[in-house]
Design goal:
The structure is a homotetramer. The first copy, chain A, is of the alpha/beta class. In chain A, 43% of the residues lie in helices and 15% in strands. Chain A is built from 13 helices and 14 strands. In chain A, the strands form 4 sheets. Chain A has a 7-stranded mixed sheet with strand order 2-10-9-8-5-3-4, sandwiched between helices. In chain A, a hairpin with a 4-residue loop joins strand 6 and strand 7 (149-150). In chain A, helix 2 (36-53) crosses helix 9 (249-265), helix 10 runs antiparallel to helix 13 (377-387) and helix 11 packs across helix 12. The longest helix of chain A has 22 residues, at 267-288. Chain A is globular and about 60 Å long. The two termini of chain A are 37 Å apart. In chain A, 62% of the residues are buried. Chains in contact: A-B, A-C, A-D, B-C, B-D, C-D. At the A-D interface, helix 1, helix 3, helix 4 and helix 9 of A face helix 1, helix 3, helix 4 and helix 9 of D.
Chain lengths: 388, 388, 388, 388
């Protein structure tokens, strides 16, 4: 049967299901980006973003994907040939490393098994060994979207502070912002990188930064060539409510609506909701007798869960069955997890019954695809959900 | 927790979940209802509606709710004081009876227990006893939305034909059209009454008729006062693509899109999908150990399932818990079923995972509301769904 | 050239240009019409409609076109064979008369030339002559959409009051509500009939009533058959925020937005804006040397202007040229004005430059169609607009 | 009066009025950017863009503003310190120069008066003098959005070819693409830079390239650091229908719709429409007795017209009056034209009556702002429009 009726379940770990309120907001007629109405819009969303990043400092909005904000974080703070400490926590950490290399930086890339977050002790050891203070930045992915593993950013900062190492701390919160507890200012992060299409519930098209004073000061002498990504012109024009080049107006309409929705629900409630759905999902996976990619219970992601298939079973074949039969999109295995892993996104605009539908789809799909598993995982999740 | 994030599950038996394609269609700018573009629209939707009603004869679109189309069916075909044979199959059948009485008709209202459809043998007996041919119309609700019981329209017609009784056959397909097998022409129905907000997946606001030649001929001498509902002016103006008064343009945009969606999926597939989801739902109800309102296995509705709660349990309290906790709207018990019954709509734009979410919400809600039931109903539904 | 790019100018006298805010509002997902959110919606729009009708009494919203609200006004207040005084002010007044006759009422239809409003002196004479008080209702079209002539409702009421005649006063404000000064309560109207697709800026699909206490009392004994249109069930269910049958939810979303827009602009400002655009339009027509249908300067409509073409010129040929060349829809001549008249709608969501575009289109069209006229009418309108 | 009712006239030279079809398209639910439906979308829009650029070669779509596509053109083709020949045709040409300098290129910036396009003879002289072939690229703005002056790209190419100079030709078509005749392949351009929010009628958020084989080959050895903008990964992933990072899905939905609209109208018709509206606008400006920025009749832009105010008159004060009184946004004077110039955008989704409204608004605004001018400019435009 061609079951294409009904609502699609977009349970990749981003882009997430865009709520209809936001879809309507982005369908408002475009306005003059140099007029007074636009200036009010800019100020409102910058103020709102500050609350989401938990910072009182500057935030920046780029017309770009999150990948653009990665590049922007590097070119604003570093000079050719400078050294960056990075960690192989998964596919996206690896891509960020590749970008740094391509841009002419030297990367000390700490190997990893893609099943753990960054080890704060390794950060400490690396920096302690860096007597010459040649490491200019430590770049960490807060929530590795390819594995469902989070890293302990606050603890990393503490280790850096303990050593009084001057390196900047750059953090990718692409798939954690507005979904998993994160505190730019309190945790002492220098550049936080975010985007629109995950916890912020928007379509893709916005790259985001929160920036520390120290990062801004560093930018003044950083010498990687930059123009589009340059903070200075952006922050200056933003002050008056404008942008140094044409901003993506309709996505900004959507961002305003997204921020209103987050504040209506309450940011704390949003985080608690993500934690609850993540725990329910993990109970389902355990109920099925399947293995999660994440091995450290302290590092489970609240925005997605990556699940391993038994050897000899192709995760992409499973995903295909599920997409065609149940109108449910799941995340593919990326990089070296290709074919071995599928990922369930449970972030953004989501609720208990959407999760119930999602887990039901996975459970039915496992059966259809002939993957060995124990029935009842979805039921275990529901049992958890109905308890609290 | 205030779980208001994510998509609402509108599982009342109509209005149903309006697909985003249709919502976008009805947000097109309104056009001149006397211009050439409008005439093309009218012709296209009338042709499409014919296929949905399965008729080659006239169809009529009223700017009204389905209740208006009930009234229109009566006032176009009957004269003051004429007798109509009606059947107490549930709340809506009772309301239609009340309307007929209010309009000045005499109604022979065959009592019922709200748990069975119309008994064709009773129709036959009633008409056989009507030697004077004083019964001018037999009015039947095909799918009683308050109980989830369908009546066997084709068989009723056969009994009428067997007696050569000249009464018209008026059928309400409000909650069956485009969801449950129905054939206006083949079954010899004289006036079929439908609406927009159920199987047609639109918001409310359109009342629909399919009309037989015999009904049209009868209308010429029917003397209940009528103007707004009058077929003649409507059919004449429709021929040129127009309406005798301002039509509800934007809902017609939506209707065109709805018809396209039905034809893309294939009407047969649409009916099969409804049958499948209905059977899955019944398995869930049986799995919970709850009783359905419908007692005759041949009369189960494919568009909704009405479920009885054990005595001393308030169905509306259950519905309230489910709405507040799970963002799921279920149908209330109507009329004498108030508080004793809840109804699950599984019609319109729907799929397996939406059903899984719905049944999960009901199952979790039963537990939260303290209703005695057996766990696993949702699981039984999923087992059925994954088998075929 | 096929000039189909750009925004269509829908300058018929309704449906009017629906603002994008309202189009977005009606594209919200349909909600449960028996749930708490719906009840809040109902209460909010009923309260807002009261302000628009300028009444503290009951208002009613039908899922119907305005024509349905005409029928509802008659069947709620009158009994078969009762006499109604009506006036031939134009095409729509004639249609309303025809409806009354069709419904079994006796109509005293005062002939008119379609170029004047109702003469209050004639009302007085007719009622004064009615010693037996057989006239049960006086029915007046406030703004005749086919001619652009308004009638003086307050003065008519004064004449009726002067005679202490007990007839009800029924007024059609289809194309004047929220566009031309109108006061249901202050003017002592018994039933005011309105609709959605004109000054309220919505798509068609809602019929509206404001009702006096006297009309309500009369309804209790009025004996024309009615069910769908019956006030009693409607008002009772409305009290709790609900409807006796499925309401047109998405149009009600739009109505809420429309009311907000009217109140944001300010009702007085809305009326003043319509007056200003109407005067500008009349200056254009005079500048072209063309004749308006309306002959009495006190009776010019502020929502539309009907313009006569010189004999031997076909207004529909002109309209066709203008539609094809300039993407501008104008109103056709109706009834006996067919082909002789075109109508410019300047009501609803409108502004100076939309009017400038409209009048420019008419002026260019007159030239293209070979209609003899004086150039510069559009310029005269602009001169007026820029002065105030 | 606060005339905020009615449709806003967004007559800045981009973003342009986004047609409601496109606004609805971008409000479709976001889909999986790694799924089969997305791959079909990518292929369809790339094929369509090729027709718009008039190329059979590769095109690239960036999630960025047009400014990003400027940067991408430079970093893909040039190495640090290499020389680029650029021309001071206006504000945007100056910004592009500044970007090149900031990225570490050496720019030979030919001064200009902001009232003429690039002089092909100067290009020839510069390149002829460049015996050492140190000039690696010639960068030209096809249509200077700040001045309304177009440059003769085909002729520039001919001069380059005549000298067999190997420099690449980079052309900015930000405000000419899909509005003014442009032929990437036939004219031998190496990199054409475009964006979404002008002739393509979309909101901002997409940067576009058409690329020659020669440019692609050059990219392999170009050494400016690049990652986000890198063509190679983009073109490789595009081949399969995907992107190397998350693409701006909803804007791509809009792009597909925009391309359909352009092809429905016919690209030749689109260009002819722009030419017609531009000529009408120029007649209006001449009628007012005002001066255009563009001094060379062969170089008038078909997408916007920049108008100078008499000395002692502030163009921004005029724009403010027009915005507040007439809900019409005009372009501001940029850079050294600040306050002296206003710009009328007449590109994108536009028609005769929108232009009539726009010019009427300008004419009324000139009067209100006390700018000395001759009445009747708008009328002169209409006279031209009605002739053809």
């Amino acid at each position: 049967m061609g079951l294409k009726s009904g609502r699609h379940f977009l349970q990749i770990p981003g882009p997430t299901n865009v709520p209809d309120r936001i879809l309507r907001a982005i369908s408002r007629p475009t306005i003059d980006h140099r007029g007074p109405e636009f200036a009010r819009l800019t100020r409102e969303i910058i103020e709102g973003l500050r609350q989401v990043f938990r910072t009182s400092g500057p935030v920046v909005i780029y017309p770009s994907s999150g990948t653009g904000a990665w590049e922007a974080a590097l070119v604003n703070t570093l000079s050719p040939g400078e050294k960056v400490l990075m960690f192989e926590t998964g596919h996206f950490a690896t891509l960020w490393r590749n970008m740094a290399v391509q841009l002419g930086l030297e990367v000390d890339f700490v190997p990893g098994d893609w099943r753990h977050g960054v080890d704060p002790a390794v950060v400490e050891a690396k920096l302690a060994a860096d007597r010459g203070r040649t490491i200019k930045a430590v770049a960490v992915v807060h929530n590795e979207t390819s594995t469902g593993v989070t890293s302990r950013v606050a603890e990393i900062r503490q280790r850096m502070d303990g050593l009084r190492h001057p390196a900047l701390l750059l953090v990718d919160t692409i798939s954690s912002l507005a979904s998993i507890d994160y505190r730019h200012e309190e945790w002492g992060v220098d550049v936080t990188v975010g985007c629109s299409q995950k916890g912020l519930m928007l379509p893709p098209g916005l790259g985001l930064h929160a920036i520390s004073e120290k990062a801004l000061a560093t930018a003044r002498s950083a010498r990687l060539p930059r123009s589009y990504w340059d903070w200075e012109a952006m922050l200056e024009d933003n002050r008056a409510g404008f942008f140094p080049y044409t901003p993506p107006t309709n996505l900004l309409f959507g961002l305003r609506e997204a921020l209103q929705m987050l504040f209506e629900e309450g940011l704390e409630n949003v985080l608690a909701r993500h934690a609850r759905h993540a725990e329910a999902t993990r109970r389902a996976v355990r109920g099925w007798g399947l293995e999660m990619v994440c091995l450290n219970p302290e590092e489970h992601s609240n925005s997605l869960t990556a699940v391993m298939l038994p050897a000899d079973h192709d995760a992409d074949a499973l995903r295909k069955v599920i997409l065609e039969r149940f109108h449910l999109s799941l995340g593919t295995g990326l990089g070296k997890l290709k074919g071995r892993v599928f990922r369930i996104g449970h972030l953004g605009d989501f609720n208990d019954l959407m999760l119930a539908g999602t887990l039901s789809g996975v459970e039915m799909g496992l059966a259809l695809a002939g993957v060995p598993f124990t029935k009842g995982g979805a039921g275990a999740a529901l049992a958890y959900l109905s308890e609290r």
